[in-house]
From TrEMBL, chain A:
The gene is gcvT. This is aminomethyltransferase. Pfam families: GCV_T (PF01571), GCV_T_C (PF08669). It catalyses: N(6)-[(R)-S(8)-aminomethyldihydrolipoyl]-L-lysyl-[protein] + (6S)-5,6,7,8-tetrahydrofolate = N(6)-[(R)-dihydrolipoyl]-L-lysyl-[protein] + (6R)-5,10-methylene-5,6,7,8-tetrahydrofolate + NH4(+). NCBIfam families: gcvT (TIGR00528), PRK00389.1 (NF001567), PRK13579.1 (NF010093).
Automatic annotation (TrEMBL), chain B:
The modification N6-lipoyllysine is found at K57. Gene3D superfamilies: 2.40.50.100. Keywords: Lipoyl. This is Glycine cleavage system H protein. HAMAP family: GcvH (MF_00272). Binds 1 lipoyl cofactor covalently. Pfam families: GCV_H (PF01597). Residues 16-98 form the Lipoyl-binding domain. The keyword ATP-binding does not apply. Its cofactor is (R)-lipoate. It comes from the Bacteria. The glycine cleavage system catalyzes the degradation of glycine. The H protein shuttles the methylamine group of glycine from the P protein to the T protein. Belongs to the GcvH family.
Length: 387, 119
């Protein structure tokens, strides 16, 4: 058999997370990912890990992601957590985000492209920011340069775990009872037998769940305590990818990057009114001219969900056509896989705005053949958040 | 049973050669989600890409191990690709063929040689 889609593995000094030994003990297959040696799957396998997370609870090591604390300029008073300054880098409302709440955001560039997507939490006297592993050095440099007077500190002595799935609340509440009262996108600091835990009720699977920042020396003990519960299985990056794709969530570097604007990426929902045209804090973020215009008038192309009509998955890079023969490609798939919960292949990609209505039939070229695919609503599997 | 370096197995059965992929290959591929089979009656030449097999991870080809003609394909795999993970060397055969150059079988490994090949 000849492998077609597996890329070359680059050798080099890879970072390890505080759970590296545990992953090996659990029988994980480790792969290089964003400069880290990470578990792509455990002995259960991608499909069963995915289904287990949707049925019960899954534990993910996301310690490769960047954790950053931002504090406001000291000369503007003790109450400044940097929210005002932060709005110069993102099109989101950070001022006015209540203490104990988190918001999805993205850094944009001067051309209106996406530099990274991230989570920002208001933790009172500071902001807690979580960014993608592959972008973190660049993001930290961006924040240091773009937040004059603010302190920007990367947290390098804490691991980050995600516990996701319908039983996540019951599982985590055995260790930290107060997490049961949190709502989707709440954040808090909780004392525990594993030291202070920085917990948000969020994740990237479309399931209810938590992300838990824990001091690195306690990370393995916490992970073992969670895995000791019957409901919990460790889940690798393979299932993390199919879970997020079923949830209609973008993967930075695949579905969004500097060549895509927030409106093209259908992330309009993440830009609050107050930063839009005629809002109280309109514009004043990188690329505002283009992004505000596209919010008003739309973009020429749009990220959409795609459901192949046959059983063949359409992987990233699959060219999309308007007809079953002839013509130039009208777009391309940016993520594509088989959806274990959906029970069918699914994809997302960019198509011209006039071909973006759900139900529109397009053709993806797979191994030289044009296969029918329909534009579809996302998420492919309904989200299960505790709002 | 004979084995190829492409992790296919070949079994003689009623004058035909039955072809599938090994347990080792199915484990390496991970959960199989899609299979495209050749046409019955199709003439094939050794090393032609005759099947497509997609797992949760990647797409791969199955190469024709011998010259000959496809006489039967296992259509049950198209409906239930997961059989390849459950019973790769039994129920989940891919196709049966009549070889035109049966001597090509001699190029392939026996079970002991394949076991040492996969280490």
């Amino acid at each position: 058999m000849g492998e077609e889609t597996t890329g070359k593995v680059s050798e080099g000094a890879l970072h390890r997370t505080p759970l590296f030994d545990l992953h090996n003990e659990l029988g994980a297959k480790m792969v290089p990912f964003a400069g880290y040696e990470m578990p792509v799957q455990y002995p259960l396998g991608v499909m069963k890990e995915h289904l287990h997370c949707r049925a019960r609870a899954g534990l993910f090591d996301v310690s490769h992601m960047g954790q950053v604390i931002v504090r406001g300029a000291s000369d503007t008073g003790a109450s400044d957590n940097g929210a005002g300054a932060f709005e110069a880098l993102v099109p989101q409302a950070i001022v006015g985000l209540p203490e104990g709440r988190q918001r999805y955001a993205f850094f944009t560039d001067e051309q209106g492209g996406l530099l990274d997507d991230l989570m920002v939490a208001n933790r009172g006297d500071h902001l807690f920011v979580v960014v993608n592993a592959a972008c973190k050095a660049q993001d930290i440099a961006l924040m240091k340069a773009g937040l004059p007077g603010c302190e920007v500190d990367e947290i390098t002595d804490r691991a980050l775990l995600a516990l996701q799935g319908p039983e996540a609340e019951a599982v985590l509440a055995t260790l930290v009872p107060d997490v049961a009262a949190m709502r989707f996108m709440d954040v808090g600091v909780f004392d525990s037998e594993f030291g202070a835990l920085w917990i948000s009720r969020s994740g990237y699977t479309g399931e209810d769940g938590y992300e838990i920042s824990v001091e690195e020396g306690q990370a393995e003990a916490l992970a073992r305590a969670l895995l000791a519960q019957d409901a919990v299985e460790p889940i690798g990056l393979g299932a993390r990818d199919s879970l997020r794709l079923e949830g209609g969530l973008c993967l930075y570097g695949n579905d969004i990057d500097t060549s895509t604007s927030p409106v093209e990426a259908a992330l309009n929902w993440a830009i609050q009114k107050v930063r839009r045209k005629d809002g109280a804090r309109e514009g004043n973020f990188p690329g505002a001219a283009r992004i505000l215009d596209e919010l008003e008038n739309g973009a020429a192309r749009k990220r959409v969900g795609l459901r192949p009509e046959g059983r063949a998955p359409m992987r990233a890079g699959t060219q999309l056509f308007a007809a079953d023969a002839g013509g130039e490609p009208v777009g391309a798939v940016t993520s594509g896989a088989f959806g274990p919960t959906l029970g069918a292949p699914m994809a997302m990609g960019y198509v011209p705005a006039e071909l973006s209505a759900p139900g529109t039939r397009l053709y993806g070229e797979v191994r030289g053949k044009r296969m029918a695919v329909q534009v579809a609503e996302m998420p492919f599997v309904p989200a299960n958040f505790k709002r | 049973m004979k084995y190829t370096e492409e992790h296919e197995w070949l079994r003689e059965e009623d004058g035909l050669i039955v072809v599938g992929i090994t347990a080792h290959a199915s484990e390496q591929l991970g959960d199989v989600v899609f299979i495209e089979l050749p046409e019955e009656g199709q003439e094939i030449t050794k090393d032609d890409e005759v099947c497509v097999i997609e797992s949760v991870k990647a797409a791969s080809d199955i190469l024709a191990p011998l010259d000959g003609e496809i006489v039967e394909v296992n259509t049950a795999l198209v409906e239930d690709p997961g059989k390849v993970n459950e019973d790769p060397e039994g129920e989940a055969w891919f196709f049966k063929m009549t070889p035109s150059e049966p001597g090509q079988m001699d190029d392939y490994m026996d079970e002991a040689a394949y076991k040492s090949f996969i280490g």
